Amino acid sequence: MQERDNDKDSNNLDDEIDLQELFSVLFQGRKIIFYITIFLSTIGIIYSLILPNIYKSESLLAPVEESSKLEGALSGYSSLAGLAGISLPTGDVDSNSVKAIEMVNSLSFFENNFMPKIFLPNLMAVESWDYEKNEIIYDSSIFDGYSKTWVRDYSYPKKQIPSAQESFEVFKDEHFSLSEDKKTGFINLAVKHQSPFIAKKWVEIIVKEVNTFYRQKDKSDSQKAVIYLNDQMAKNSFSEIKEVTADLLQREIQKL
User: Fold this and answer.
1) 143 half-sphere exposure, CB direction, 13 A CA radius
2) Burial of 212 (0-12, 13-18, 19+ CB in 10 A)
3) Is the peptide bond between 121 and the residue preceding it cis, with omega within 30 degrees of 0?
């Protein structure tokens, strides 16, 4: 027992000696540690000052789910319509918010609705933004701002003028974000850019194009509904079906 106690005391003594040596080494090297910390902090501050300011423009979208769609209004008459030999149209399962997110995140939307309305070098060749002159300074190794020509080096499959696919990848990775609040269905759309004016302009373009798309889609759906309802009015003699069809026809015409 005595030997074991002596071993424990010896181990404790060794631990104390090790800790004392450690603190002694740290204390002796305090100046080196201090200077290294100051140096790294200075490097970090300088690097953060060199980085350009990035501005973000956001928009909160509230998709409208139509409660007066043709298929919804006729759903209560499905049994009667079946007896009359009428095939009722079926609607999309996905909500407008889901469809809007899929559309805005697609390459086709970027290529057909967004890309033609922006100055591509503002996406692919920006070096900095002069806030005093409100001018974009372009990377001279990519785009010549004076001659307005692309001068970048490239290799296959890339081209000298960035393609829609290459531009789309840069836009999604570095500038664009889209998220949906599952509880409210609201969509948060955000664009980041070195110029706050360009960020704001790009958000406005996307929102306008989305609204235009759904406006045209609603118009097209109403036109198809009017044709369908007129056809059903002419084909059947059930008074109940004619009554609800006439009501729906009036709604679609008002919508148009």
Assistant:
1) 18
2) exposed
3) no
Alpha-carbon distance 241 to 84, whole Å? 9
pTM over 0.90: no
141, HSE (Cβ side, Cα atoms, 13 Å): 3
What pLDDT, in 10s, does the model give residues 212-227?
Answer: 888 888 888 888 878 8
**pLDDT for position 117:** 95
- Mean pLDDT, rounded, for 177-206: 90
pLDDT band per the 50, 70, 90 thresholds, residue 132: confident
Taking a C-beta distance cutoff of 8 angstroms, is the pair 123, 171 a contact? yes
Give the closest residue to 191 by CA, choosing from 121, 129, 125, 104: 104
How far is residue 110's CA from residue 113's CA, in Å, rounded to a whole number? 6
Place of tokens 């007129």: 230
- Going by their DSSP bridges, the two strands 135-138 and 126-130 should be labelled as antiparallel
Per-residue burial over 111-140, b = 16 or more CB atoms within 10 Å of its CB, e = otherwise: eebbbeebeebbbbbbeebeeeeeebebbe
E strand or H helix that includes residue 179: strand 176-180
Whether residue 204 contacts residue 117, with contact meaning beta carbons closer than 8 Å, is answered with no
Residues contacting residue 75 through CB under 8 Å, at least 6 positions apart: 88
Residue found under tokens 């298929």: 71
